[in-house]
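Input chain follows. Return structure tokens only.
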Amino acid sequence: MIGISPRRTYLDWASAAPVSPRAWRAFMNATKLFGNPGSVHADGVAARVVLEEARTRIARLAGTKSDGVIFTSGATESNNLSILGYLHLNMKEMSLEEMHVLYLSSAHSSTTGPVERFGSVGVQIEPVALQGATIDEEALKKQIRPTTVLVVMEAVCGETGTRFDTRNVRRILNAISPDRHIALHVDASQLPLVGSFEHTHLGADMITLDAQKVGGVRGSGVLILPKMFALQPLAFGGGQQHALRPGTETPALAAAFAEALSEAADNRETFLVHAQTLKEEMVRMLSVLESVEVNGTNQVPHILNISLLGRDTDYLLMLLDADGFSVSTKSACESDADGSRPVRIFTDDRERASSTLRISWGPTTTLRDVRRCAASLIRNVRFIDTR
């Protein structure tokens, strides 16, 4: 495994997955092609071939045409380009105050941030109604207005592993507004290891993916536009990628990303079984501890979020780190002093949200890794409890 010390056990895959050997080889091979992919000479053409092959491979996995795959620097840029780009485009026909946007308030900050930015300048924004960690479908139907232009969601909550049925949301939107299309943006960054991001499966008009969540090289993302959904670009100065994202593309990053996504698809069924086994063993071992709650419902099998009530989980994280285990308390992009924002939204319990620990694994994680981490966690919790 590239970049991981053999003396440590990495269990923070939801934050950033190790680069897979297959993706690394694709990346290194493509770095030999130093030509600008926009140039017409032989070196440029060779780079362009690698870039477009990667685009085509990702498009096939998404069930769309290759010109609907826009390479970005990561999920944050993709989410901003999608949400801000679509709302800027709607400003040509509606005033800010007329537009209504529904969004999943528990989603990653790179999706909630752009929505809340528009809310601060007059757009009517409203959190999607939830019952715990589940979308309240009947309430959602009542939330949709004649001026609703966009619904923003994520397929999988990166902190709790909760999976949302975005396709069913699409059905609701179509049923409530059959004559006026309401756009659906889905951040599917946490999905590829455990589920298809094929656009009809998600029901989405715009889909975000991030290389670092699936074993690609960090610094690469994609925005998938299945029907080349119209957006207003946020940057100007070049005609690359339909002028939606100007700037020279990086074939090596694209090649690694495509390889990582292909590898995830090839191994998905096997990984689902393996990941569920690891989760069941971790939960079984931790059941000996008192005041432990599992957060989230309908969870993917490779993310486990628990609340260790009454314990300082930041301190626990440091103890686990000293034992050689990399885990987290919440998303690395969150700075909320009150703890996990999704857990607080799902449970309405600040104590539970302030005592979370997220453990996540991938295809190379072993049963021994999970058992050793659980044993370390149990030992350190008991140490804290007896202080």
